[in-house]
From TrEMBL:
GO molecular function: nucleic acid binding
Matching InterPro entries: RNaseH_sf
Top-level taxonomic group: Eukaryota
Organism: Caenorhabditis japonica
Official protein name in the record: Uncharacterized protein
Length: 153
């Protein structure tokens, strides 16, 4: 199976000293990501999911959001329980944790290296299925009126 071209981007998150602005610049979020989204959705509506983790509210991140996603939901409108709707939070981080569970790491760099190996071992099909499950999760969340919806899945 062909590997996603986006996989190397996780490596940027582990480079010591890189702030969110530098990561955004290296990933070319302000140009290539927006171009891909516009092409994929062909002018139709789409929503950029912004979970408001502290680094996601940095000035540089907000500048990209304001420039390319006017009307994005600010942190006062985003539900506190939204991790249940984020594929990284409801699935992928748990998978990564499971792959390194029970191991002891002497340094943060050792932990990062183990996470990189774990990330590389995740099948792209698993990632696609996880992302494709979001629509079902959103419907369940609406049905539960924003309350605990995982029992409905």
């Amino acid at each position: 199976m062909k590997s996603s071209p986006h996989r190397p981007s996780i490596e940027l998150l582990f480079k010591r000293g890189l702030g969110s602005a530098e990561i955004a610049r290296r990933l070319q979020i302000s140009s290539s990501t927006v171009r891909i989204l516009r092409r994929h959705f062909a002018g139709g509506p789409f929503i950029l999911q912004q979970d408001w983790a502290p680094s996601h509210g940095s000035r540089s991140t907000l500048a990209v959001l304001e420039a390319h996603f006017p009307g994005f939901l600010d942190k006062n409108l985003w539900r506190a329980s939204s991790p249940d709707l984020n594929p990284m939070d409801f699935s992928v981080w748990g998978m990564l944790e499971g792959k390194i569970a029970g191991k002891v790491f002497a340094t943060v760099d050792d932990l990062k290296a183990a996470l990189e190996v774990a990330w590389a071992s995740i099948d792209d099909g698993y990632l696609r299925r996880t992302v494709n499950s979001v629509k079902k999760r959103l419907r369940a969340c609406v049905k539960a009126r924003g309350s605990n919806f995982e029992i409905l899945l």
